[in-house]
């Protein structure tokens, strides 16, 4: 697993670093681990103002061909909240992450778990 925090979208270099970790583990253990890239994208941009793409098209072919699962930090937050509310969802998300090659689908309903509050003046 590779975890990054960036001011923009994820980049191919992040997937390449993940692949180095995967290759290193394969060399050591003889088994191919699941590569999971978690990127907290657009971290300095308000959630409701973030561009739609966390993972640009140019990195998808590379990651899909290597079986990487690409997850945004916001998706990971939603998954955590969902599992905390209903622990039975943990197995669903484990399986989905392990089966996904490319961008993880779902876990996008962050407004359900977060409320915007105005700072007191």
Task: Please provide a brief summary of the model.
This protein is of the alpha/beta class and 121 residues long. The chain has 4 helices and 4 strands, in the order βαβαβααβ.
What does this structure look like?
The structure is a single chain. With 121 residues, this protein is α/β, with parallel strands linked by helices. The protein has one domain (2-112). It contains 4 helices and 4 strands, in the order E-H-E-H-E-H-H-E. It has helices spanning 12-29, 57-65, 73-85, 89-99; strands at 2-5, 36-40, 69-72, 102-103. It has a 4-stranded parallel β-sheet, sandwiched between helices. Helix 1 links the parallel strand 1 and strand 2 (36-40). The longest helix is centred in the N-terminal third of the chain and has 18 residues, at 12-29. The radius of gyration is 16 Å and the shape is globular. The chain starts with a strand and ends in an 18-residue tail after the last strand.
What secondary-structure arrangement, pairings included, does this model have?
Layout lengths: L1 E4 L6 H18 L6 E5 L16 H9 L3 E4 H13 L3 H11 L2 E2 L18
Parallel strand pairs: 1-2, 2-3, 3-4
User: How many DSSP H or I helices?
Assistant: 4
Query: What is the helical fraction, as a range of percent?
Result: 40-55%
Q: How much of the residues is beta strand, in percent? A: 5-15%
User: Number of DSSP strands?
Assistant: 4
| C-alpha Rg (nearest Å) | 16 Å
Number of domains: 1
Contiguous uncertain segments of 5+ residues? none
Strand order of the largest sheet: 1-2-3-4
Summing up helix and strand content along with how strands pair, one would put the structural category as alpha/beta
């Amino acid at each position: 697993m590779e975890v990054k925090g960036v001011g923009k979208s994820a980049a191919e270099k992040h997937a390449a670093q993940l692949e180095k970790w995967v290759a290193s583990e394969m060399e050591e253990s003889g088994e191919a681990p699941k590569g999971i890239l978690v990127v907290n994208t657009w971290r300095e941009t308000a959630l409701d103002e973030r561009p739609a793409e966390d993972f640009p098209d140019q990195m998808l072919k590379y990651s899909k061909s290597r079986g990487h699962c690409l997850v945004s930090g916001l998706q990971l937050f939603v998954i955590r909240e969902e599992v905390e509310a209903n622990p039975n969802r943990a197995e669903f998300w484990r399986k989905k992450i392990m089966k996904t090659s490319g961008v993880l689908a779902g876990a996008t309903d962050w407004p359900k778990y977060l409320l915007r509050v105005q700072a007191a003046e």
